[in-house]
Amino acid sequence: MSHAATWAFRVRVAAAAATSRHVPAQVARLPRVSPYVVVAAVVLVGLLLFVAAMGARALLAPKAPTRAKLTTYESGVDPVGQGWAQTQIRYFVYAFLYVIFAVDAVYLFPWALVIRSTGLGAASLVEIGVFIGILLIGLAHAARRGLLRWF
Amino acid sequence: MTDVLEVTLRSVSVLAAFLVLPLLVGQAEHKVMAHMQGRLGPMYAGGFHGWAQLVADGVKFVQKEDITPAAADRRVFRFAPAVALVPYLVAMAVIPLSPDLVAADAPASALFVLATTAVGILGTLMAGWASANKYSLLGAMRSAAQLLSYELPLVLAVASVCLAAGSLSLGGIAQAWSPWWLIWQLPGALVFLVAAVAELQRPPFDMPVADAEIVFGAYTEYTGLRFAFFLLAEYAGIVVMSLLFAVLYLGGWQGPFSDQLGWLWTLLKGLVIAVVIIWLRVAWPRLREDQLQHLAWIVLVPLALAQLALTGVWVVVSA
């Protein structure tokens, strides 16, 4: 029931949006079923495809495991030590930078919807400029300190 | 009852597209690559120019023994191909071929596509870690580093297009498109194409599977059908990224007779981009890991931000 209610709400919102000047009328043409129900069904279909394919393989493929076959591959010689080795994670800094910029990118998408409104356009442009400018200074600083070098 | 029927019809159509289009791209790669290299490519399977080669490959894969190494983290290892594959199926569901021809018309589908395609990389990470193999682990590490670096320019390029269209829906973006975008959004389009090829781990960005260095990266220990699923995921990824490029930067269904033939235009534009992605594989050597990071952070991210600034200023000035 609550799902149907939220969907009805979305349809109203989309219809209202379509009458406003900037949103293409195409948005208002919604299918009868919620798109997210279809998305959930597609996920289910994908998992069914995987299960069905694995079922077919279980029926068709031979199964004759031997010790040598189950050994970890290491270019034909016996594996040395463990596979889960510690490595030096060189992209640690990149991961930090990525998280910072990814959070920033999340703010850009709502901006796309308000930039054309008369009251917000220029002001939001300046604000986003300041916001991204600070991040860019950070990136330039990281580059100058040599953090963007792999070696 | 009719709702159930509609949902079934829509999801099964997505599945059908998912099983046909990647094979088309795969066969195109066989033949295009072959002719670019002065070869013929597959010629026997199916009779006419080896059209059934990939079907034959599938039949072969399903009959191969499925090996899980004794040292592997068994459950994660066996489930990883599904995690790599299903996100591209879901992404395909929200990409419109024409205003009416879209399985799930999600309101913020541009954002949704970015989110789902980013999940696919988890399959590679799971595969690499669970294999308990040094090559696999190295491959997974490279995949992670590559994703971190190239996801960002990709997202920024799409944000710029959303800004230009004033819409977060792929349908709305293609509707707002005009030929002027070919120049205005060109830097963003180039960033998107490069970042998309890197996300797909296709040459020249195939460091994570570099066969001359780390055997086959995260997929080293995989055999038979599970291995085939990773390959299918790669080609499904090419389809998704090519169609996405067509919808975002080439106007999707816009063209002559778009009322009747809109879906065909989207598919044709996507196919052209897919051939370009194949062409890149033939034409360019593999980048080194540090060159890869350098390109992303020193070239692509600033370029994408410049495009964003250009789009924002132009939209505000012309409003």
From TrEMBL, chain A:
Protein family (similarity comment): Belongs to the complex I subunit 3 family.
Localization (cell): Cell membrane; Membrane
Function: NDH-1 shuttles electrons from NADH, via FMN and iron-sulfur (Fe-S) centers, to quinones in the respiratory chain.
Ranges that cross the membrane: 36-60, 91-114, 120-143
Descriptive protein name: NADH-quinone oxidoreductase subunit
Chief localisation class: membrane
Catalytic activity of the protein: a quinone + NADH + 5 H(+)(in) = a quinol + NAD(+) + 4 H(+)(out)
Cross-referenced InterPro entries: NADH_UbQ/plastoQ_OxRdtase_su3 (IPR000440), NDAH_ubi_oxred_su3_sf (IPR038430)
Organism of derivation: Pedococcus cremeus
Top-level taxon: Bacteria
GO molecular function: NADH dehydrogenase (ubiquinone) activity; quinone binding
Record's keyword terms, sorted: Membrane, NAD, Quinone, Transmembrane, Transmembrane helix, Transport
Enzyme class: translocase
Membrane topology, from the record: Multi-pass membrane protein
Pfam families: Oxidored_q4
Gene Ontology CC terms, in alphabetical order: NADH dehydrogenase complex; plasma membrane
UniProtKB/TrEMBL annotation, chain B:
Recorded superkingdom: Bacteria
Topology with respect to the bilayer: Multi-pass membrane protein
Keyword vocabulary terms for this entry: Cell membrane, Membrane, NAD, Quinone, Translocase, Transmembrane, Transmembrane helix, Ubiquinone
GO molecular function terms attached to this record: NADH dehydrogenase activity; oxidoreductase activity, acting on NAD(P)H, quinone or similar compound as acceptor; quinone binding
Keyword Translocase: yes
Pfam families found in the cross-reference section: NADHdh
Top-rank EC class of the record's enzyme: translocase
Entry GO terms, CC: plasma membrane
Cellular localization per UniProt: Cell membrane; Membrane
EC numbers for this chain: 7.1.1.-
Main localization category: membrane
Transmembrane segments: 12-29, 79-98, 110-132, 152-174, 180-198, 227-250, 262-283, 295-317
Catalytic activity: a quinone + NADH + 5 H(+)(in) = a quinol + NAD(+) + 4 H(+)(out)
Function statement: NDH-1 shuttles electrons from NADH, via FMN and iron-sulfur (Fe-S) centers, to quinones in the respiratory chain. The immediate electron acceptor for the enzyme in this species is believed to be ubiquinone. Couples the redox reaction to proton translocation (for every two electrons transferred, four hydrogen ions are translocated across the cytoplasmic membrane), and thus conserves the redox energy in a proton gradient. This subunit may bind ubiquinone.
Quaternary state and interactors: NDH-1 is composed of 14 different subunits. Subunits NuoA, H, J, K, L, M, N constitute the membrane sector of the complex.
Name of this chain's protein: NADH-quinone oxidoreductase subunit H
Originating species: Pedococcus cremeus
Phylogenetic placement of the source organism: Bacteria, Bacillati, Actinomycetota, Actinomycetes, Micrococcales
